[in-house]
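User: I'm writing a tutorial on reading structure tokens. Could you give me a worked example: one chain, its sequence, then its tokens, then a sentence or two explaining what the tokens reveal?
Assistant: Sure. Here is the example chain.
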Amino acid sequence: MKIGVIGGGQLGRMLALAGTPLGMNFAFLDPAPDACAQALGEHIRADYGDQDHLRQLADEVDLVTFEFESVPAETVAFLSQFVPVYPSAEALRIARDRWFEKSMFKDLGIPTPDFADIQSQADLDAAVASIGLPAVMKTRTLGYDGKGQKVLRKPEDVVGAFAELGSVPCILEGFVPFTGEVSLVAVRARDGETRFYPLVHNRHDSGVLALSIASTDHPLQALAEDYVSRVLNKLDYVGVLAFEFFEVDGGLKANEIAPRVHNSGHWTIEGAECSQFENHLRAVSGLPLGSTAKVGESAMLNFIGVVPLVEQVMAVADCRLHHYGKAFKVGRKVGHATLRCADRATLNQQIAVVEALIAKG
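And here are its predicted structure tokens:
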């Protein structure tokens, strides 16, 4: 089986690493000349809206998936005329637009922060008067890893904020005084079978995920699964989906969904019976889903901008290095480490060791 992937970054690369042992081959459509997934398959260098090259991809593969939600929904809709594409164009259309996303959560009875659609500075002024400060203003599409957003803490921050974010459609969200950030990675098969990984505790630095730790018997696991199931069923979703939540007053408030394999699920490569990457491929290709059971105690730490010395990372017990083969650049995800230990105390110790290596640069 040959899988087409829209996007050739590290997520596409890790999909191919998971699929190659299953006898799968891969083709990646990505405009970047140095797309890091190209070492694992054919690289079709073209823009996401290039219909000639999209037809070429469709003619070469058995099905198509995508590795990030910045892909236009129109691209997926076009490809769907010629080859199966999972997740669907409709799922992507909703998940990539924060207004559509939050509106869906509200319709499904999933708690969210207060939010408002912002099409102008006047809209922003009115929304701030209604929702209050502090609040977070985000572009409706394309914002990730802390990009495309601004925290509004005082009235002066509101002045000119719409133009500051590019005068593009935005959403204003009330600030959430959360006690923790968690995410749930789920996988849904073509026939609707759904499996869930354990809730993950996340820590972000400057809007970028720094650390994820898989939980054990989290008291909010069942509630998170309920909320995620509502979304999966509403979208008739196929593949892996990640749902990020805020922990608030003993419950959960929705932050956002990602219609793809997710950074907070990287720990599953070594820390679960079947990784998120393999399970995504199983789901989209119609194969039986694998077990999402945790193996030991696991965590993931991102390498942002630079990967520490390889020999130092590999000298850490219980640690596995994942180097993306990307040029080092400030603010860029260039690799990660996963830890799998027998107990939580040891895991915490090893996290501290890897964090010290990251701090050294």
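What the tokens reveal: The CA atoms of residues 219 and 250 lie 9 Å apart. The chain has a mean pLDDT of 96.
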